[in-house]
Amino acid sequence: MQIILDKLHQNSTRNHIMLLEGIALKQGRLHECAGRARRSFALMLASRTKGPVVWISPSYIPDRLNPTGMRRFVDPGRFVFATTQRKEDILWSMEEALRSGSAPLVIADLQYFPSLTSVRRLHLAAETGGKFASTTPIGLLLTPDKGGAQGVETRWMLQPNTKNNHLGWSLSRIKARQAPPATWQIVQTAKTFWQIAA
Q1: Of 152, 57, 140, whose CA–CA distance to 105 is shortest?
Q2: Which residues of 89-121 are buried (b: 16+ CB within 10 A; e: fewer)?
Q3: Fewer CB atoms inside 10 A, N or C side of the chain?
Q4: Is 195 helix (H, G, I), strand (E, B) or coil?
Q5: DSSP structure class, residue 78
């Protein structure tokens, strides 16, 4: 069976944002995604939210998101990009953005793994941000290699996977507090539809 979902439709259950059928991320928590297509995961998640998205990265990495490529997933006009000179300021900026509740999704594009203490602070900031906004924010860490941030709610791995000349990915849930590991094949069949391939 194949499930077709409208990409632009906000589909969330209570306290969760549904990325696709059976793939949910809990609000008020910090999640992690690694893999070569981790930025695509962040854009897919952004397409399931409403309002601004804060994207924080260090100023010293040369690769930046291209608005033309982002349009395939989400309106790039919703994004607020922040760059920091020091790597320590990335997590501080993320904490402040989550605590304010001003954006439903705050993303930190990291080149390293944060400490467990930092992750706990980010969880608390996301919970606090829900008290000041109609939507409790989600924090998403984009990490190198296969991931490995301690204390995150879920860890995901997204890798490119092209089949039948369609843009696609292999998404794996590596770690979750309340769900077993699982893998899905995702194919973008048109600009406004996602498909979970059986």
Answers
A1: 140
A2: ebbebbbebbbbbbbbbbbbbbeebbeeebbeb
A3: N
A4: strand
A5: G
Distance CA 113, CA 197 (A): 32
CA angle 34, 127, 131 (to 5 degrees): 140
Tell me the two tokens of residue 58.
């260090």
Domain range summary for the chain, segments of one domain joined by + = 12-156
Beta-ladder partners of 184 = 171
197 burial level (CB within 10 Å; 0-12, 13-18, 19+): middle
Residues with Cβ within 8 Å of 39's Cβ and at least 6 positions away in sequence, in order, are 65, 109, 142
| Average pLDDT of every residue of the chain | 87
- 137-187: per-residue pLDDT in tens? 999 999 999 999 999 999 999 999 876 666 789 999 999 988 899 999 988
Whole-prediction pTM: 0.88
Tell me: the pLDDT tens digits for 67-81? 998 998 999 999 999
Lowest mean pLDDT among 12-21, 104-113, 149-158: 12-21
Instruction: Tell how far CA 168 is from the center of its chain.
Output: 17
